[in-house]
Design goal:
By secondary structure, the chain is of the alpha/beta class. It is 47% helix and 17% strand. It has a 7-stranded mixed sheet, with helices on both faces. The chain has a two-stranded parallel ribbon with strand order 6-9. Strand 2, helix 3 and strand 3 form a beta-alpha-beta unit.
Length: 270
């Protein structure tokens, strides 16, 4: 290689690395015109004051019928770090998050909910944790870990369903009593893409499947405490979602029995 060409190549690589986002934040949204604007406002304010590295926010609009997509488009004018992935049809949370994972450019990728139920301070804290723990590939925000705080509780029916799901997962997946299905998760990019390449559910059970796949394929998963608040507007329907959860968990076990999750990280990195 000619010396001048080599120098130019080094400059281009350095320039790209300087502008590649350290963090991608994925927010799946379905009919969230009421809750999403305040969530984004709090997030941008916190990141401006507390995070000095490049980042991007990806709103994955899951076929909303309200002004969710229009609101995001309006905000991109004043927030260049914000971009919209607009899916014309409702496909399910798991499907749009999976697509967004492969669009994300950050070294770390966070998925979080449109209602902003997890305090923004966790975003920076999770990044800093991954910075100093290279052996960890995936972090889960936990409402049950020591140091976690529930600022405003959920309605009793949602609490009961949540505990029922955890107990069922303990029995079916041999998990311990924890908060693995929480929607606040941060990944290293290589782990995220391997996990989501081998994740199949398009709906809520994807939250459990992602953790199952990660552990099955040898990625190290860690829970960290979060501050969590319930916001009105939940679309959970107890009978429908209980049925979907049980059906989805059985589907995960069937997929595992068929060998769809079984390739280990040591084989992936060869």
């Amino acid at each position: 290689m000619h010396p001048a060409t080599g120098g130019m190549h080094f400059f281009i690589v350095l320039f790209c690395n300087m502008h590649e986002p350290k963090l991608s934040i994925i927010i799946p949204a379905y009919n969230e015109e009421n809750r999403l604007p305040s969530t984004l406002d709090r997030l941008f304010h916190y990141m401006r004051e507390n995070f000095d590295r490049p980042y991007e926010v990806i709103v994955a609009n899951d076929g909303s019928h309200d002004r969710t997509a229009a609101i995001v488009r309006e905000l991109t004018g004043s927030h260049p770090e914000l971009r919209l992935m607009d899916f014309p049809k409702n496909r399910g949370r798991g499907a749009v998050v999976r697509d967004a994972m492969f669009s994300a450019a950050g070294s770390y990728i966070l998925q979080t909910d449109a209602d902003g139920s997890v305090g923004e301070e966790a975003v920076v804290r999770f990044v800093e944790y991954l910075d100093v723990h290279p052996e960890v590939h995936m972090l889960i925000g936990s409402r049950l870990a020591r140091g976690a705080k529930i600022l405003t509780p959920q309605p009793l029916i949602r609490v009961a369903l949540g505990y029922a799901f955890v107990i069922l997962a303990m029995i079916m997946f041999r998990w311990k009593f924890d908060d693995r299905v929480n929607g606040f998760k941060m990944f290293r990019r290589d782990a995220a893409r391997d996990i989501y390449r081998n994740q199949y559910s398009d709906h809520y059970i994807a939250e459990a499947e992602v953790v199952y796949v990660a552990e099955r394929r040898g990625w190290k998963v860690q829970e960290l405490p979060i501050f969590w608040a319930d916001y009105k507007g939940s679309r959970i329907k107890p009978v429908r979602d209980s049925y979907r959860s049980i059906k989805g968990m059985i589907g995960i076990l069937i997929n595992d029995w068929r060998g769809r999750y079984s390739k280990h990280i040591s084989e992936i990195k060869k």
